[in-house]
Design goal:
The structure holds 2 protein chains of 2 kinds.
Chain A: E1 5-7, E2 16-21, H1 32-40, E3 43-47, H2 65-80, E4 86-91, H3 93-104, E5 111-115, H4 133-138, E6 146-148, H5 158-170, E7 177-179, H6 180-195, E8 204-209, H7 218-226, E9 232-237, H8 250-276
Parallel strand pairs in A: 2-3, 2-4, 4-5, 5-8, 8-9
Antiparallel strand pairs in A: 1-3, 6-7
Chain B: H1 2-25, H2 32-58, H3 62-81, H4 87-107
Classes of the chains: A alpha/beta, B mainly alpha.
Chain lengths: 277, 108
């Protein structure tokens, strides 16, 4: 089953490209609606399956966060050679990867859209024995356990939640659990990004829910505080959980991020016009 | 010394729990029973490391202290070396390490 989403306009009619990254154990399917929305508004959208994700669920046990990084860097460099405006965006692990790309290419990224950034695993849904996580992921134990995907599935809206539950049962939207090895690699990636946040200079919009069940708003606040970008915005949602692209405030998120993209696309066009004249 | 016997007990429990998991439960990863069992296994790891650290403070002799600290760090060293394809091999190493550490402390 092809999982990648590539939505391209005819040559020269596109305003720019948006590189989307999905979350841990997810798939580009979770970004489908958002990708279509951006495409309708004139942007080419690229959302491809991250290494270790896809049809073979065992692949996630064999990858390292460096595979995710190399994938993201390669895709970004490829797009940058074709477009003037390249935005990086992501949800959860994808948001961390978008930040990693901005760390590596501080002057080339047009803008960053960071949704439910997962730098810390400290959401309210996590079980009370989460304090044992450092022991679990640092030992051989991490190959034994997979944390099951459970209620509320990162979604506050009950109707959407029941649809996602059915899709998860079918295996259409990603895996049914979070293997500890995946969590281990995510935390290593988060550590790498946290250490290098100062290198981020690109304009950024951070959207995070106050009631995020997986990662508290502390992650977004840390990014906001530590990056060097002067053009930065942090928006806190009050009626959503982790999956902000599917929850009660999805339209607000769609429109707010589009405004951000349009604003910064215009700035670059003006620069080019000024250079031409 | 209480901590000595506590360490031996936790080392034996750890070795036993890993063995039981690998022999009987590995293929049923997604059941609730396995999840409960594995949360117990995490506790076994934590208690093994904690008791080893405490024991290293009270045990006499610098060599003994060094060996016990090495045992305390062994789950992390083994965890660092292990990969998906070598997981079975390193599970056996972890079991052996726990058994040897229990024997070592018993005879010291």
């Amino acid at each position: 089953m092809p999982l990648d989403i590539i939505l391209k306009h005819e040559e020269k009619s596109s305003k720019g490209a948006v590189l989307l990254f999905h979350g841990l154990t997810g798939s580009p399917f979770e970004l489908q609606k958002y990708a279509k929305f951006l495409y309708k508004n004139g942007y080419d959208v690229y959302a491809e399956c991250l290494p270790g994700h896809g049809d073979n669920f065992n692949d996630i046990y064999t990858i390292s966060y460096k595979d995710w990084l190399n994938h993201a860097y390669f895709k970004f460099e490829n797009l940058k050679s074709k477009y003037d405006n390249v935005y990086v965006a992501g949800l959860c692990l994808g948001a961390v990867l978008a930040l990693a790309v901005a760390v590596k290419f501080p002057n080339d990224v047009t803008g960053i859209i960071s949704l439910s950034t997962t730098l810390f695993l400290d959401g309210w849904r996590l079980p009370w024995f989460m304090f044992l996580l450092p022991v679990a992921i640092s030992t051989i134990f991490r190959f034994y356990y997979s944390y099951p995907e459970c209620e509320p599935h990162g979604i506050k809206n009950e109707r959407t939640r029941s649809v996602v539950k059915k899709l998860l049962k079918k295996g259409d939207v990603g895996m049914n659990d979070f293997p500890m090895t995946g969590i281990y690699e995510l935390l290593k990636l988060s550590k790498f990004v946290r250490k290098n946040l100062k290198s981020v200079k690109a304009p950024i919009i951070l959207i995070h829910s106050q009631d995020d069940d997986l990662t508290s708003v502390k992650s977004a606040k840390t990014v906001y505080k530590k990056i060097s970008s002067t053009d930065k915005e942090l928006i806190i949602l009050y009626d959503s959980y982790h999956m902000v692209l599917y929850d009660n405030e999805k339209e607000f998120v769609f429109n707010k991020t589009l405004d951000f993209i349009l604003k910064h696309t215009k700035v670059i066009s003006n620069k080019q016009e000024a250079l031409c004249s | 010394m209480f901590i000595k016997y506590a360490f031996i007990l936790f080392a034996c429990i750890l070795a036993l729990m890993i063995s039981i998991y690998k022999i009987f439960m590995q293929n049923n990863k997604r059941t609730e029973k396995t999840a409960c069992y594995l949360s117990g296994l995490t506790w076994a790891f934590a208690l093994y490391v904690l008791s080893a650290v405490i024991l290293s403070i009270f045990i006499s002799g610098n060599i003994n202290k060094f060996v016990i600290i090495l045992f305390a760090l062994s789950p992390f060293i083994i965890g660092k070396l292990a990969a998906y394809k070598t997981e079975n091999f390193y599970s056996i190493i972890q079991i052996l390490c726990a058994v040897i550490s229990a024997g070592y402390v018993f005879f010291v």
